[in-house]
Structures are given as structure tokens and as C-alpha cells.
Amino acid sequence: MAGSIEFVRGKNVVASIAFQQSVVYPTDAPPGQRPEHLVASDPLGHFHKVHHFAGNPDGTYEADSPEYWRELTEALAPAGAILLLGHGAGKANASHHWVAYIEKHRRDVAAKVVADVRVDIDHLDDTQVLRLAQYYFAGPPVRDFGDGRWGESVNA
Questions:
Q1: Is 90 inside a domain boundary?
Q2: Do 113 and 84 touch, CB atoms closer than 8 A?
Q3: Is residue 150 situated within a structural domain?
Q4: What pTM, to 2 d.p., does this model score?
Q5: DSSP one-letter code for 27
Q6: 12 dihedral zone (left: phi>0; alpha: psi -120 to 50; beta)
Q7: What number of CA atoms fall less than 13 Å from residue 144's CA on the CB side?
Q8: Residue with the larger pLDDT of the pair 62 and 29
Q9: Which of 6, 8, 4, 13 is nearest to 129 (CA)?
Q10: How much is the average pLDDT of 20-40?
Q11: Cα separation of the two ends of the chain
């Protein structure tokens, strides 16, 4: 765990949060800069995963687990900025449950959350995660008008 903390320290980080497990995707950029790559936390190219081992092996919703939220919070605390990806609504929305936890217990970590986005986290690939990180950490991409102008207004 200590090695993976160094990969997130001071960086833009994407966290895909579900009740069964959460995946932490560190980027290569500090807050305020556009990420160019996701940085795997081990030499085999695997991202850091935080698992919830309590009584829901089938992934169904169960009451909040403070131990799970605490472990996830400790994994994300060193980050400079955090983008949350979650799916579901209401009771099934794990990222909302984690945000409620950090707003109550770790306001310093809650202040680092830049957005909480609803996406199909079960079917995202690394490229899609990177594009979401680029959009939310650095703003929408500059528009290519096809005639050599980049980022200019349409009326320019």
C-alpha cells in the first residue's frame, strides 16, 4: 500500500467507486495540469484496488461499511485532486456514500473532489478513464475547426 500511495501523492487521481471494489487510477499530472497518461501503481500495469470483503459477495447493496470507506479514504488522501466515477442512483450509488463519509470524517479529502460523475464503470477502458480525467482536470479539449484554427471562437 505504501508504494501505491507515492503514485497518487500530489497527483490528479480518478477513483472508480463501487460497493464491491474501487479502482484508483493515478495520472501523471498535478492539479491544474492536463493529464497525458494513467500511471499504474505496479510494474505489471495494475491499478490499485480497494476491496470490500464484508457480507456482499454478489455485489448487492448493503449498509455502509466504515472500514471500507476508511481504507478507500486513506488510499486517496495523498492525492492532489480526485475525480469520482460511480454508477447507480439512490442507495446503490457507492460514490455518494463515500462522499457522505468523507464530508463527515475527512473534510480535507472532500475538498479535493472535483466532480462525481455517473458512468458505466463496469465497462470503461483505460483510454475512456484518461479522457474523463483530461476533461474534468483540464477542461474540454480545444476544438479543431478543420481549417488550421484551434480553440478560437466560431466568430473569430
A1: yes
A2: yes
A3: no
A4: 0.77
A5: B
A6: beta
A7: 1
A8: 29
A9: 13
A10: 83
A11: 51
By the 8 A CB rule, do 24 and 121 touch? no
**pLDDT digit string (tens) for 136-153?**
998 776 666 677 666 655
Residue 149 lies in a domain: no
Whether 67 is covered by a domain: the verdict is: yes
For residue 5, what pLDDT band results from cuts at 50, 70 and 90? low
CATH of the domain at 130: 3.30.420.60
Residue 13: which of 63, 73, 69 has the closest Cα? 73
Domain containing 91 equals 2-138
Kindly state the average pLDDT of the residues 86-113.
Answer: 89
Whether pLDDT at 102 is above 50: yes
Whole-number Å distance between alpha carbons of 123 and 145: 31
DSSP state of 38: B
Specify the number of domains making up the chain: 1
DSSP letter for each residue of 71-123: HHHHHHTT-SEEEEEE---GGG-HHHHHHHHHHHH-HHHHTTEEEEEE--GGG
pLDDT, residue 20, reads 78
